[in-house]
Amino acid sequence: MSSEPRHLHPAAMLIDAIKSIRRSLSAFVIPGVAFLASRGFDARTIVLVLLGALVVAVLGAVWGFLSWRATTYEVAGGAFRLRRGVVQKNERTIPLDHVQSVDTVQGIIQRLFGVVEVRIETAGGGASEPDASLAALDRADAEALRREIESSRREPVETEDDAGPTILRRLRTRDLLLAGATSGQIGVALSLIAVASQLFDDVLSESLAQRLLETFAPRSVTTALLYVLILGLFAWLLAIGGTVLAYAGFTLSRDGDFLYIRRGLLERREATIPLARIQAVRVVEGLLRQPLGLASLRVESAGYGEDAGVSTTLFPLLPRREIQDLLLVAAPEFAVNPPLKALPRRALRRYVFRSTVPVLVLLGAAGLFSVLAFDFVSWGLVALLLLVPAALYGWLRYRDAGWALEDDRLVVRSRLLTRATAIAPRRRLQSRSTVRSPLQRRASLASFHAQVASGGRGAELQIIDLGSEAAENLIERLRPGQRYASGATGY
After folding, report:
1. What does the DSSP assignment read for 17-47?
2. What whole-number distance in Å separates Cα of residue 97 and Cα of residue 119?
3. What are the per-10-residue average pLDDT scores of the chain (491 residues)?
4. Residue 437 vs residues 305, 362, 391, 447: alpha-carbon distances, Å
5. Which strands form 429-435's sheet, in the order they lie side by side?
6. Nearest one of 113, 116, 108, 111 to 146, comparing CA atoms
7. Model-level pTM?
């Protein structure tokens, strides 16, 4: 396989020019504003600043052209080669069998010219930057490059025609809005609002801020509650908007041993997930989604993508009952849904105790002040209001915890705020261990831990307060090379 060195799409000139202009202006914005302020914003000073910006723009355009001319890429001799550099020439060579994914991103500028950015990742790539990036290729060239690279990793299959990836599922507009409404990202949106309000305070003059505060400050409990309701509604709408921007047009496709994900409204992203690199699948059910029978699918993959080691969304929202059908066609190795074994009853008190300990510590500190103030009634009400929900949360965590081993595939379910079910084949497990604290030994309990390869530290599957006999039995059956035989496990 070989090809001649090729240039990027001419739109790469503009993209490189914009990047260089942005870097230059970011370095001179603060000094420029200080210069204008020191000269009193007179017309001559403003003209000088505008002329300086024009010079920067012209130099950026020249640099963009030179950068485009110096950049070439090719696939030859079983490797991908990227040559670039205006002043200092450099060449990057990536063996094709080391390439982990060929992803595309289409930002606003790329969409204007009908081109895409191609990002090439290797299994040992960095977490923040791709191993190789082509700023602008038209879709035909991008697809041709992807086929050239991926052909080195495919088994030769004779087909009458190449129909391309098969679409497995699309996210409908109704489900997209529902995903945003139930995403549970209101806390993130509130944080953004808080940051924005702080920036707003820095911009406003003290007198103007004081007048606004006097005008809009709540003068009654009803008004304050109304403000809280409006703020919560605004944060909820922001969470929906963020989900729409990230997952609009979400499409999951498969072609041979590769899954393809396309998503995004303003910035369209196309990602490749090799099935061979998927280590585990997680079914995540948020608090708002559980009553509706909805969940999202995520995958843990080894050395994949620009966020290696972080779960990748396989599908953002679908009914719980349809997950197995999707996994059967998308990733059959993980399509298993056995009945889960519950934890022993003696583990319940430990789950409740762990959930109530932080509240007990807080109540102990508050109780000290109550004793000093002789306010026992208030302390008792606070204790009741906090301890009961904490104990219920512990019971809920105990009830949702469970595990199973089905056809050499480990299934573990647990809960923090969301309920998550992890599925990992035995051959994907990198480590297995049990931990027993002194209190667990007294109750004949143990905690089971397993890790799959996903980034530097890996992703963990754990069962807290499993029966000691069951934990030892599970360790034995999950040993490498040990053939699984079905059968009941004692608690």
Report:
1. HHHHHHHHHHHHHHHHHHHHHHTTT-HHHHH
2. 16
3. 79 86 69 63 72 81 88 89 86 83 86 89 60 88 86 53 79 92 68 55 54 61 73 79 90 92 89 87 92 93 51 90 95 93 94 88 66 54 77 94 92 93 91 90 93 67 92 88 48 37
4. 38, 25, 22, 9
5. 429-435, 445-452, 459-467
6. 116
7. 0.75
